[in-house]
């Protein structure tokens, strides 16, 4: 270490020696971290969300490694942050700065620490699912976003390290005080006589939660008293929390983690909560440039209102069928057969995509160049539209929408969904009206025929054509009249609807 680093280290250590948090000296906790770190060869993974709890964990572990002799720093520590690609912009900027600082400072301090961001797969991002496939905006009963965008990327990172090293220890900022369910999860997976717990779902992964017994006040006492070991302070973090009664979005490693829709450290697109107090609070505190994001988020949330669903969503599911479930109405809990709407109409998705691109351009032009949607997502959305199971986009609309906002500049993947054009689609629509046949039905039949053209064997084509013909192609009124009498209220009818309700909770439409 240089003389300057020696002085900083000595000052940092002296301050920690005076601190008592949660009725326990901080130095005692750091000694525990040093002992557990040196006990075996398992690498550590620190789950970092940028919030107060995960910042505390990162600070404690970084401080502990600083106190070890270079020869004792014998295994790697990975700092991993999960970026859903729809995180609150000011938080993303802060997290990226911290990760960049950690990577630079750890080299100077000769610490075996590297920081990494992980992302959802391009075909599983928020916008590809919502705008591409037409998934309805997430709600408590259908929270399809958490697993795809948070759990899977982190799990893949952890699984990769398990495959490489055999076992890993995941350090988390989880606290029992956060919620009763979180406290129960922590207790259920604890290992008697050990500071480690079993991971809830990943084999050969263990969790370490150094501050599980701390209160929120304990966390802030540490952050505002102890110096940041990689330099700087935690004032910016405090400013993000100031004026907000909301918590934070923790590093999500399992499905027991509650929604963080009101957190300033969550997704700006979150529709799980009715009102987004997080974005509203940031705007009230001076970040007025994010107002278009809040307005757009509210517009998407409006589509989840029961009275609006039929306006925004196709009456058919992505299976091409109209489905029903039984719901309770009235004080007498009378069960009524209820129609379950499907994905968003393609026209709705087109309108939203154009609005999203316009907001992105507006932010850039006003000095806030923050990417709201990536080109890889646009490519994936385009392919989803071209192959949409209900409304195939033969007009290939997405490149035109992008050009209306930005002009040229994107090298689009060759259209491999078929050799059709917008005039072809228009011709089929006119013929469909004349002959009272849905144009989309003919489109799907032609697509199947083309998919096997040139093949010596056309095995399975009749089954594919038959499956398309069996889908629901009439109006919703006609389908309701045809289907409702067939579903009795007897035992078979109840069983069908029980299965339907289970299907509706599945992560696929």
List the helices and strands and how they pair.
Elements: H1 3-17, E1 20-21, E2 24-25, H2 26-38, E3 44-47, H3 52-67, E4 77-82, H4 89-108, E5 113-118, H5 126-132, H6 144-165, E6 168-171, H7 180-188, E7 196-198, E8 205-208, H8 216-225, H9 235-241, H10 277-284, H11 291-302, H12 309-312, E9 323-329, E10 334-340, H13 346-365, H14 375-386, H15 397-406, H16 422-435, H17 439-451, H18 461-469, H19 476-483, H20 491-504
Parallel strand pairs: 3-4, 3-6, 4-5, 6-8
Antiparallel strand pairs: 1-2, 7-8, 9-10
Molecular structure report:
This protein is α/β, with parallel strands linked by helices and 509 residues long. It is 48% helix and 9% strand. Among the domains are: 217 residues, Rossmann fold (3-Layer(aba) Sandwich); 128 residues, no CATH class. The chain has 20 helices and 10 strands. The strands form 3 sheets. Strands 5-4-3-6-8-7 form a 6-stranded mixed beta sheet, with helices on both faces. A two-stranded antiparallel sheet has the order 1-2. The chain is elongated. About 5% of the residues have low confidence.
Brief summary:
The chain is an alpha/beta fold.
Kindly state the number of beta strands. 10
Q: Could you estimate the helical fraction of the residues in percent?
A: 40-55%
In CATH terms, the superfamily of the domain at 3-125 and 143-236 is HUPs
Oligomer category: single chain
Reported CATH architecture of the domain at 3-125 and 143-236: 3-Layer(aba) Sandwich
User: Per the principal axes of the C-alpha atoms, what is the gross shape?
Assistant: elongated
